[in-house]
Specification:
Helix content: 25-40%
Shape: globular
Oligomer: single chain
Number of helices: 4
CATH topology: Nuclear Transport Factor 2, Chain: A
Structural class: alpha+beta
Radius of gyration: 19 Å
CATH class: Alpha Beta
Strand order of the largest sheet: 2-1-6-5-4-3
Order of helices and strands: HHHEEHEEEE
Number of strands: 6
CATH architecture: Roll
Number of domains: 1
Distance between the termini: 56 Å
């Protein structure tokens, strides 16, 4: 009986340490990241404006930094057109009303009608605003080849 309890305890401990359950906030941030990803592909002005804060600082891998208005206009106009966006290796760290998200972004683009691909490492900063997570800042760097 003691061996059985010991074995059961070891198995439970292994399962608990092997899986990392997301907190309620982490789950909400994951949803916000997905909402942003989808809005960027769809070029949906309303969705984009609802997921980013007025104070947005959106940094590109080229070093160019945009505010909310310029970011939304470029996506909606097709000047910056994401056909697909795949996110990999995402991590989320929540501290109070701030969340830090890191992931690898691989996308196909059609900027101004010119097909292309991007492979970036992304840092997103989300802030809780009236119980919703919204993008405050984004910085991209080119992924190493």
């Amino acid at each position: 009986m003691i061996k059985k309890l010991f074995f059961t305890g070891i198995v439970l401990l292994s399962v608990l340490t092997a899986t990392k359950a997301q907190s309620k906030d982490e789950t909400a941030v994951t949803g916000a990241v997905e909402k942003l990803r989808k809005a960027m592909i769809d070029g949906n002005r309303e969705a984009l404006e609802s997921i980013v804060l007025e104070q947005l600082s959106y940094g590109h891998s080229s070093g160019h930094v945009e505010g909310k208005t310029e970011f939304v206009e470029k996506i909606v106009s097709g000047k910056s057109d994401f056909v697909t966006i795949e996110l990999k290796d995402q991590t989320i760290s929540v501290s109070g009303n701030t969340a830090v998200v890191r992931h690898q972004l691989n996308a196909t683009t059609n900027d101004n009608g010119k097909p292309g691909e991007v492979h970036l490492l992304i840092l997103l900063i989300f802030q809780k605003d009236h119980k919703q997570w919204k993008l405050l800042a984004r910085q991209a760097v080119k992924a190493a080849s």
